Amino acid sequence: MSAAPPTMLARYRRAAALAPEKLPDLMRNRRVTPEWTGAGDAFWYRRQTESGEEYVLVDPVAETRAVASTLAGLGVQGSTPHTRPGVLEGPDGRGLRRRDHNLWLVDSDDDETQLTFDGEPGFAWGELSSDNNMVVPFRRMALDLPPSGTVHSPSGRRVITLRPDERGMAVKHMVENVPPSGEARPLVHAWPVQLDDEGDPPAFECRIIDLDTGESVAVDAADGLISQLMVNGSSEITWSSDESHLYLLHHRQGGSRAALVEVDTRTGQRRDVLVLDEGPLYEPNQFLYSLPLVCVLPETGEALLFSQRDGWGHLYLYDLATGECRNRVTDGELVVRDILRLDVGAREVTYLAGTAEDDGSPYWRRVYRAGIDGGTQRLLTPEPADHELIAPEPQFFHIVFGQGKAPVQSISPSGRFFIDHQSTVSDPPVILLRDADESGRIVMELERTDIRPLLDAGYVVPQAFRVTANDGVTDLWGVLTLPEDPIDPTSIPIIEDVYGGFQTTHAPHAFLGGTKLSARQIYLPAYSALGFAAVMLDARGTPGRDREFRQWTFQHFHTPRGLEDHVTAISELARRHPQLDLDRVGVVGHSYGGYNSVRMLLMFPDFYQTAVSSAGVHVAKKMPHGLWDWHLGDSVDRDSAEYTELGNVHLVDRLAGDLLIACGEIDENATVDHSYALADALIRAGKRFDFKIWPGVNHYTVGPYARMTFWDHFVRSLLDEKPPAGFVPG
Fold first, then answer.
1. pLDDT < 70 stretches in the chain
2. What backbone torsions phi and psi does residue 537 show, to the nearest 5 degrees?
């Protein structure tokens, strides 16, 4: 006799056991984070055992691996970085601090000398601009942030710095109705922001300061020259060896033009040394949250830049004297994603690229090395799998999430060795030490991720799939998770988890727990435990593919372009898996996913029966200025129908299914007025829907109660069952 199917209460409890915050502890040795000792290429790392933790010391050259219960047992002393709160440390022992809206020079004895004297409220040197989406979290953390948008020269003598002009900006407010302090009066949060229909914001002011003399020169940045300095920090700037010049890429999101700009650090004068114009859209990297793919070699008068001119995403070598392209550095049907290391002496670059070699997933990252003079590209990770390395990241992300620790690198100090996390969505990581100088030879296996606790908790391993897009030609990739205990094995409802798509890929291509990409994968195990089939997909318009695929939705985001691919893909999955019920399809998303989930419900009311829109943005003009530029180009007509139809409010008459709108009341990224605007339009149209506002919640928290509410919505609308009264979220 077969066992009775789990009750709904048991399903909720299993889903809670697979909550996102619990998943990391259900895998042992999911990743190896190397600490390079400084003695050659040796490194140590922590590893988990069934009883606790131990330490491993690896000598790649000697090919030895030692294990001990303590670092001291390995003869290693852990490093403690020298950091001073609020100080941007320079390479010569001096640093910079913000005080009274100005910059101060801090010497090694903590003595301070004022550098700027004209800072004022709303126009302060080294101030982080208020459109960073983290104003309230930073206030709550009481962080003493070092000067932002400020970069030292290699010697430490000079610094480039900026200040945003927010003096004339209108203030936006959020009300926190139940303050953490317990006070009765609601707490009002306020910050200046330029909304998308309020015209161009004032330009940043930029200076280069000589720290030895205190003298400074102004740099004309009125055209957005240093707009990315706040985010990318030191990775944005290259200095010549004598520090007489610096170089940076000038590009506006959504535009076709980019220029490599040379700035004279003694006069502030600037000139374009080379120009790229690749209409309709140029991108310095297809992935918005990664660094621009730019490397400048001032001493040889050359630069490496990313381009999609031949239909793929390659690196090209340019001559700074003439502005001409010398040669293509990378080859094949691939998209370069991260530059891991540039060896100027050897004239070689090591990089991560996505490629569909061996008929595998085009999103699998592979490690390559190539000579910058072209024709010598070598694949260092031939196995058909995703190969994850820790790549350099924008400085802002490190400041926010790095907690003051030095950035981690997967490549050894000499550049010879690297640590490779090899996995697929269904195969857990094998973590390898490889020798780049010997064509990626495997030096040793460091770890195999132990997922037995994960499987014991009820985790269902997803299946990767490939289907054809709405054009009948283009391949699309995604993942499908089928429940182990469906309520009706012959008729399984479907939940698709979606994102907006243009910044990053959404569907996972590595095993659960990979860094940065496909973060929403962590929500699928709970849907499977509840009895749903869960789907994630990357349709046309998302990064990581050829230029035509990538730019499919550019200047067409107000239409169903790209979204119809989701309908086609799920329909094909149902043909392959007849137990999937196309009469019960739901969609859920957060942030830009919350935007798309309600958009898909409204645009395809005959296909999607229900949706959860979490922290969605629904009105174009309510966004901070410029955030729609990628969609419609850098010269958006804000009076056009195309601009208005980027939002969702004009679609409310099409609502036929069940909709839940949810938002945190202090979400400064997708502010609550977006959700109110959509709710207001639905009320005016006489449409029924559910609306939840989470007290005291920001953009980055989807807690147990909110997740339970989403489960409840789908259980009612797709399973026609009551949520279990006995379940209490953890």
1. 1-2, 80-82, 399-406, 515-518
2. -150, 145
Please report, for the chain, how many H helices and E strands are present, in that order.
13, 38
The structure tokens 């269902």 sit at 460
Tokens found for residue 724:
């279990």
- Burial of residue 408 (CB within 10 Å: 0-12, 13-18, 19+) is middle
Distance CA 348, CA 65 (A): 29
Instruction: Identify the three-state secondary structure at position 521.
Output: helix
* Tokens representing residue 66 in the block: 């030692």
pLDDT of residue 279: 86
CA–CA gap between residue 548 and residue 566 (Å, rounded): 18
Q: Which ranges in 149-302 belong to alpha helices (H)?
A: 229-232
Q: pLDDT value at position 632?
A: 87
Tokens of 465: 């799939």
DSSP state of 65: E
Residue 279, judged by CB atoms within 10 A of its CB (0-12, 13-18, 19+), counts as: exposed
Is beta strand 492-498 parallel, antiparallel or unpaired with respect to 533-538?
parallel
The 3 state secondary structure assigned to 637-650 is CCCCHHHHCCCCHH
Quote the pLDDT of residue 730. 81
> What pLDDT does residue 399 have?
67
Distance CA 215, CA 510 (A): 51
- The DSSP-derived string for 407-464 is PP-SB-TTSSEEEEEEE-SSS--EEEEEEGGGTTEEEEEEEE-B-HHHHHTTPPPPEE
How far apart (Å, rounded) are the C-alpha atoms in residues 586 and 234? 44
CA distance from start to end of the chain:
34
Structure tokens at 98: 């913000």
Q: How many of the other CB atoms lie within 10 Å of CB of 423?
A: 25
Coil, strand, or helix at residue 209?
A: strand
Contacts with 140 (C-beta within 8 Å, 6 or more apart), sequence order = none
CB 347, CB 371: distance < 8 Å: yes
- Counted residue by residue, the chain has a size of 730
The structure's pTM equals 0.95
Residue 620 CA to residue 88 CA, distance in Å, equals: 36
pLDDT of residue 232: 87
Per the listing, tokens 């009002």 go with: 188
Classify 1 as helix, strand or coil. Answer: coil
- Which residues are 190's β-sheet partners? 173
Beta bridge partners of 297: 302
Q: Do the Cβ atoms of 343 and 304 come closer than 8 Å? A: no
617-671, pLDDT tens digit by residue?
999 999 999 888 888 888 888 889 999 999 999 999 999 999 999 999 999 999 9
- Residue in the block written with tokens 């026609």: 720
- Given the DSSP bridges, would you call strands 88-89 and 95-99 parallel, antiparallel or unpaired? antiparallel
* Residue from 450, 405, 407, 414 nearest 435 by CA: 414
Q: What beta strand segments (E) does 625-718 contain?
A: 658-664, 690-694
| Tokens coding 663 | 């938002």
Residue pair 661/631 in contact by the 8 Å Cβ criterion: no
Q: How many CB atoms lie within 10 A of CB 83?
A: 13
Helix (H) or strand (E) holding 717: helix 704-719
- Decide the pairing of beta strands 205-210 and 216-219: antiparallel
